[in-house]
Design goal:
about 240 residues, alpha/beta, Spore Coat Polysaccharide Biosynthesis Protein SpsA, Chain A, 7-stranded mixed sheet, 8 helices, 7 strands
Length: about 240
Amino acid sequence: MVDVSIVVPAHNEEGNLPKLVPRLRELAEKAGDAEIILVDDHSTDQTPQQVDDYQRKFANIRAIHRRDGIRGMGNTLKEGTTAARGQFVIWTMADLSDDWSSVPLMLAKLRNGADMVFASRYMPGGSSGDLQAFKRFVSSGFTFASRLFFGVPVHDITNAYRGFRREVYEKVRPEAGDFAISPEFALKAQLAGYRLDEVPTTYAKRQKGVANFRMFKMARRYFGIFLKANLVWRFTVPRAK
């Protein structure tokens, strides 16, 4: 029985995977009975071959290839999470932007009763590092509004880097196929009555590869998520038992 599943979306990450995988294997070893799921999302570089090589070499690494359907971080995370066998799931990015010292802290809170734990850049002790100013303004502002209108008890719901109980995902079923899956999943979990918590983390800008985020698209998507949470999810999200 797998205890922890670490799900990693990867689109054209050939420059980052050789550094990422050894660090994730260290994390998995410390986490106990853990698996690493590398989800190749329509990559056109050497990423597909790399994830297959890692799967052949290491028993606790699984490779998933997305060659059909629409490319996107949300779709990739959903496919990896659906395949996960652990009772706890960690989402982390392949671009080396996440501070993995946050993982043991997230798992400790999950094992102590939390349902979803966010790695927060904006709580005391956290840092957004070299995150672009406009992106920081939009992401922190969205969480502030969510705290104000929905009672969200954490400071950073736009960061995909988080841990959660697999049953929460199965219950609320986030739908977004892109980066908007991060706030959507958080708001749905909050509206369903799950217990949200957070740990501090430090963000670092990717060193290799190209980020796919577009600033104004991000702002529009977050605004749409906020409206939907008010007009639809507040009344339709199934409540936690």
